[in-house]
Design brief:
This protein has 278 residues and is of the alpha+beta class. Among the domains are: 145 residues, no CATH class; 29 residues, no CATH class. A five-stranded mixed β-sheet has the order 2-3-5-1-4. It is elongated.
Length: 278
């Protein structure tokens, strides 16, 4: 009877160990499923991963919004996984994937007969294109123009005079913007978890430690928000440096040479038109 009792207890103990062993070998994605910054089982699917990355990246024209642009809504994600909602959402995601974060920059030198007048015309043109003046040093202007009108603005500037120098460059910052957005999403999740833990803390030592970490995370969130705003502004408005300088025209006189009457012999070989021609 004792042997049977011992065997029963041993079998029960082994069953409990096996169960604990099975639980300990579950994938980490299940263990950390409730953590906002960690991957979950649904993340392994390509479609879900694509939708999450697109939710993390806001549109450059809408600015930076802490909750609506960077925080994935669990309810929305659940709805997207259903068959009736999957088709329209995937089409929207494909459209968003094609949008690139491009920074445009231009450096122009334009020869004009009246640099001051040309500078004023440039300011008027900037207002017409819904841009603004960033800085001005005499007839050297730095203006910001909506990126969609970048090349149209340059084309109009070409009509001001003779464009002797034109340099246009672009920089794709899509990957940097997406990386920052994902970091922001993870930090927002960490802040929420710390806030929940702080509400349950009972010891002063634990409370101080959690508040210190919460302050650090909040500061990092604000820093990344500033960077995202800065990048969004660079993408939304192109930067154009314009330098207007005095252009010396050539004479259109076609008549006979007008000789200079002077006792100095070598000057008599020149005419007035030649002397004032550049």
């Amino acid at each position: 009877m004792r042997i049977i009792l011992l065997l029963t207890l041993l079998a029960t103990a082994l069953g409990g160990c096996a169960k604990r062993s099975e639980m300990s070998h579950r994938p980490s994605s299940y263990r950390y499923r409730n953590y906002g910054g960690a991957r979950t089982a649904s993340d392994s699917a390509p479609a879900s991963k694509s939708m999450e990355s697109e939710e993390a990246r806001p549109s450059p024209t809408t600015g930076v919004s802490e909750r609506s642009d960077y925080r994935a809504d669990k309810t929305t994600a659940t709805k997207k996984s259903t068959p009736e909602n999957s088709a329209p959402e995937s089409k929207s995601d494909r459209t968003t994937l094609q949008q690139r974060m491009i920074i445009y920059h231009g450096d122009l030198s334009v020869g004009v007969f009246d640099p001051e007048k040309a500078s004023k015309r440039c300011l008027t043109l900037t207002e017409k294109y819904k841009g603004y003046l960033k800085s001005r040093d005499n007839n050297y202007l730095v203006v910001r123009i909506p990126a969609a009108r970048f090349f149209d603005f340059i084309q109009e500037l070409e009509g001001f005079g003779k464009m002797t120098s034109r340099r246009v460059s672009s920089e794709d910052i899509t990957s940097q913007f997406v990386d920052l957005s994902m970091r922001m999403n993870n930090l927002l999740g960490a802040r929420d978890r710390l806030t929940a833990i702080l509400a349950k803390a009972t010891k002063v030592k634990d409370t101080l430690a959690i508040e210190k970490e919460l302050t650090r995370v909040t500061g990092e969130i604000e820093r990344i928000k500033g960077m995202l705003r800065y990048y969004s502004n660079l993408v939304s408005f192109a930067t154009i440096n314009v330098r207007f300088y005095m252009r010396h025209g050539t004479s259109s006189y076609k008549g006979p040479a007008i000789k200079i009457q002077t006792p100095i012999e070598w000057i008599r070989y020149f005419d007035i038109v030649t002397l004032f021609r550049n």
